[in-house]
Amino acid sequence: MQQPDTDILIAGGGLAGATLALAIARRVPGYRITVAEAFPLAEAPAPEDYQPSYDARSTALAWGSRKIFEDLGLWAAISAQAAPIERIHVSEKGRFGVTRLAARDHHQPALGYVADNRWLGLCLMDALRREPRIEWLAPAEVGPVRPLEAGVDVTLRQNGETRCFRTRCLVVADGGRSGLREALGIGVHRHEYGQYALIANVTTERPHEGTAWERFTERGPMALLPLQGGPRPGHSSALVWTLSPEALDEVLGLGERDRCARLQAIFGWRLGRFIRFGESHHYPLTLATADETVRPSVALVGNAAHALHPVAGQGFNLALRGLMALVESFRFARAHDLSPGDLTVLARYQQQHEADRRQTIGFSDSLVRLFGGDLPALGPLRNAGLVGLDLVPAAKHWFARRAMGLGATGSPRQPTDRYREHWQ
Ligand SMILES: Cc1cc2nc3c(=O)[nH]c(=O)nc-3n(C[C@H](O)[C@H](O)[C@H](O)COP(=O)(O)OP(=O)(O)OC[C@H]3O[C@@H](n4cnc5c(N)ncnc54)[C@H](O)[C@@H]3O)c2cc1C
Question: I want to staple 307 with a disulfide (CB 3.0 to 4.6 A). Which of 130, 220, 303, 382 is the partner?
């Protein structure tokens, strides 16, 4: 019988796959880890040569995610270019209710942080290169999967060559349109929101002062997240603007000045005038959840397991908590001399992560449905919700903990809390 080429093969070296590789290397002794990434490894500059750019996309990292990166020894690097979110301001256009959350009310220095994805990628690549147990193959594509009695064979395409590659455990981290999930015949529960997210970095006349703005409009939610650098430090924010397909076409047809004016009309003047509207990217918004996240020798993580609406900035934060649950399961496997692909090992990951997954998906989906739809009857209810939240400290505390990625307090302990404690 052919020996496995690796213990754990991670298919996809995006944010989820790369973080998982690092976490296994740093938390679980002994395993050989291979990451196959379809995209060519960019000639990434060293982190010290990094310059924030106008086309960068950003991720809001919850407070809980900071704790995870601290544990992985990566936070010192990430924090050099991460802007703290000291306050969150939630409002609805044309309505009175406003909710304000402040880090100091929750005895934390920040509710979360905003880091641009390119910076996160550079920090991860820099750390991965220094891990001798990680083999990084790029560009390399993982193809069809053939389950074995113990482990799986996959087809690996690299440098124009195709070879069979055997692993004891395959981690599917190939993103929201996961070809491997489909090849495995794993079903997906999909809800199309019929909207797009337009992403751009913008400059405002007034400084953001560490405030993240969530604004719900009749056309869908909009978020402005404070950025660390930018051409005018302290005045740059990352915009996530939800638009219908027609509205997206309209905005894309506008020049920079008109885009600023359109944004101004919706967001208002809390940050003064919008001065610049950087390069934009747009994404169709879908909630996609895989029907299964584990099978013998196979685990799904990141967007391959669940792709969320970005309104509440929960997708990668949820993914990170899932990765840590998987790492804990691999530690269990090492301690009990089990294969990392053993179903009892992977089922632990699934069980530990499931409640968090369900609650977080439900939380962001209900935010979109409550605030995102063009349903006038919901207006007063939504308004009451925001006003109520501002007045009731316990409700605010609950919302803040969710936003921080810490889970709700006061509720019965979930199994996920057990592994989270380890990381907090
Ligand atoms: C507009 C927007 C804003 C967001 N904002 C936030 C936020 O503020 N906070 C937050 O927590 N989350 C946010 N998210 C979610 C977050 O971006 C995702 O959760 C995260 O990027 C998922 O990473 P991933 O590694 O699972 O997938 P991806 O980033 O899609 O990576 C998948 C990788 O797999 C590779 N690949 C694909 N097929 C193969 C194959 N066959 N073989 C080998 N490699 C393959 C691809 O090249 C890619 O590099 C946002 C998402 C969107 C769309």
Answer: 303
